């Protein structure tokens, strides 16, 4: 190798000279771009990246300047920065030391994200809300096999629910190939669940996850086709992409969203420690209930044992009771027989008092007397009725109009049968009928006189 013509510089000396040269010659400038990867450590400083569609620049906003920024900085904001270029010597990072921040509108990526989100929401792509089986029989984790997300998920599952069956679906989670790879994996999983039943939608869950990052790092999860593939998945999908503040279209299209990979694992499975504690509590309750039941049954057994007597003593009591019942039965039988005997004697006396032969003889005597009285009263009654009839006939003849007619009077009647009482009621030439004591005469009015 060629020998150096002059002594070599150390890395720190080179970075120091570059920083001094850059700060002295370039000075302050305004730069416009989109914020990404905004970070706020406990020191109060704000670190972020300013980018456009072709390049990016590291930036640092120190605490003494950050307190004058009215609106908190967030990913996707488009801003104008006033600052000076410098180099962070320990790492050799080229950066902009920011003195002032002015808003310049929303970032292009954020605008595109909001437009696509609104369109997919209008189409119903975000309408999934299927309940997840708890705990799932088989958990499929679609993520990078070397990322921090899978380590966090497996760590939580190991601690909370070691019985989980987990299958890792390795896919890239960043860059241009990430979204197509996840779409192909989703299609393969759904084909297996539909063709041979290898995956059961009622018992298995698909978790799509990755760790945090900038908006550009997570942009693969904002792919329109990936969101549609998640929406049409037969398996229920949980999405856990980035940190709590990170929201992607995959989160909206999934059935359930978790803020972080660790939180997703906690939502998917129960905590064995809680179950063990619950089981311990139930065991203690069962033991207390068992002991209480045994105490109650022991008291009941003691009570029954106190009531239990020797069978011979019980037989003696039953024999005495039987003798008492036999004596009561005999006394009741004798009393009943005596009462029936008295009732029989009383009925016999009443029967003798009401002998049918004597009653029949008395009735025969009364019948004979009634017949004699009838035979005596009938002729006398007939004679009385004859006398009354003759008297009525005489009275009837005395007032009968026929008797008057027999004395020479007559009754005149017109052709209608009406009795003529006055001469004025007739007309000359009118035909009349005269009814005599015996027979009738046809007359004709020749002339009438008023007197």
From TrEMBL:
<dbReference type="GO" id="GO:0005737">
    <property type="term" value="C:cytoplasm"/>
</dbReference>
<keyword id="KW-0963">Cytoplasm</keyword>
<comment type="function">
    <text>Bidirectionally degrades single-stranded DNA into large acid-insoluble oligonucleotides, which are then degraded further into small acid-soluble oligonucleotides.</text>
</comment>
<keyword id="KW-0540">Nuclease</keyword>
<dbReference type="GO" id="GO:0006308">
    <property type="term" value="P:DNA catabolic process"/>
</dbReference>
<dbReference type="InterPro" id="IPR025824">
    <property type="entry name" value="OB-fold_nuc-bd_dom"/>
</dbReference>
<dbReference type="InterPro" id="IPR020579">
    <property type="entry name" value="Exonuc_VII_lsu_C"/>
</dbReference>
<dbReference type="GO" id="GO:0003676">
    <property type="term" value="F:nucleic acid binding"/>
</dbReference>
<dbReference type="GO" id="GO:0008855">
    <property type="term" value="F:exodeoxyribonuclease VII activity"/>
</dbReference>
<comment type="similarity">
    <text>Belongs to the XseA family.</text>
</comment>
<dbReference type="GO" id="GO:0009318">
    <property type="term" value="C:exodeoxyribonuclease VII complex"/>
</dbReference>
<dbReference type="InterPro" id="IPR003753">
    <property type="entry name" value="Exonuc_VII_L"/>
</dbReference>
<feature type="domain" description="OB-fold nucleic acid binding">
    <location>
        <begin position="9"/>
        <end position="101"/>
    </location>
</feature>
<keyword id="KW-0269">Exonuclease</keyword>
<dbReference type="Pfam" id="PF02601">
    <property type="entry name" value="Exonuc_VII_L"/>
</dbReference>
<dbReference type="Pfam" id="PF13742">
    <property type="entry name" value="tRNA_anti_2"/>
</dbReference>
<keyword id="KW-0378">Hydrolase</keyword>
<protein>
    <recommendedName>
        <fullName>Exodeoxyribonuclease 7 large subunit</fullName>
        <ecNumber>3.1.11.6</ecNumber>
    </recommendedName>
</protein>
<comment type="subunit">
    <text>Heterooligomer composed of large and small subunits.</text>
</comment>
<feature type="domain" description="Exonuclease VII large subunit C-terminal">
    <location>
        <begin position="128"/>
        <end position="443"/>
    </location>
</feature>
């Amino acid at each position: 190798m060629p020998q150096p013509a002059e002594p070599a510089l150390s890395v720190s000396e080179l970075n120091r000279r570059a920083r001094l040269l850059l700060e002295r010659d370039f000075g302050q400038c305004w730069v416009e771009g989109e914020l990404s990867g905004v970070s706020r450590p406990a020191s109060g400083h704000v670190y972020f990246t300013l980018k456009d569609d072709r390049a990016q620049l590291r930036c640092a906003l120190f605490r003494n300047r950050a307190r004058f920024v009215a609106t908190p900085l967030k990913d996707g904001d488009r801003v104008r920065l006033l600052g000076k270029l410098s180099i962070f010597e320990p790492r050799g990072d080229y950066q902009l030391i920011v003195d002032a921040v002015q808003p310049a509108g929303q970032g292009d990526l954020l605008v595109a994200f909001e437009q696509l989100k609104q369109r997919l929401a209008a189409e119903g792509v975000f309408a999934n809300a299927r309940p997840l089986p708890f705990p799932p029989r088989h958990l499929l984790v679609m993520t990078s096999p070397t990322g921090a997300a899978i380590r966090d998920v497996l760590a939580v599952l190991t601690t909370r629910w070691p019985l989980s069956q987990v299958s890792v679906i390795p896919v890239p989670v960043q860059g241009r190939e990430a979204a197509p790879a996840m779409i192909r994996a989703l299609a393969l999983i759904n084909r297996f669940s539909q063709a041979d039943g290898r995956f059961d939608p009622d018992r298995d869950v698909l978790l799509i996850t990755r760790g945090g990052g900038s908006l550009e790092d997570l942009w693969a999860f904002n792919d329109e086709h990936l969101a549609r593939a998640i929406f049409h998945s037969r398996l229920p999908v949980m999405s856990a992409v980035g940190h709590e503040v990170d929201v992607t279209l995959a989160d909206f299209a999934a059935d359930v969203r978790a803020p972080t990979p660790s939180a997703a694992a906690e939502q998917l499975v129960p905590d064995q420690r809680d179950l063990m504690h619950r089981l311990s509590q139930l065991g203690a309750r069962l033991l207390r209930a068992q002991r209480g039941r045994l105490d109650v049954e022991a008291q009941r057994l003691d009570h029954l044992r106190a009531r239990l007597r020797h069978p011979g003593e019980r037989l003696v009591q039953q024999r005495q009771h039987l003798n008492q019942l036999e004596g009561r039965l005999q006394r009741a039988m004798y009393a009943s027989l005596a009462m029936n005997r008295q009732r029989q004697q009383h009925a016999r006396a009443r029967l003798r008092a009401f002998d049918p032969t004597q009653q029949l003889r008395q009735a025969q005597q009364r019948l004979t007397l009634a017949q004699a009285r009838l035979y005596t009263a009938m002729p006398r009654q007939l004679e009385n009725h004859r006398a009354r009839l003759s008297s009525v006939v005489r009275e009837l003849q005395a007032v009968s109009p026929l008797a008057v007619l027999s004395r020479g009077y007559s009754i005149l009647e017109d052709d209608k049968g009406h009795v003529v009482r006055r001469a004025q009621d007739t007309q000359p030439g009118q035909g009349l009928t005269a009814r005599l004591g015996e027979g009738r005469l046809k007359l004709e009015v020749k002339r009438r006189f008023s007197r």
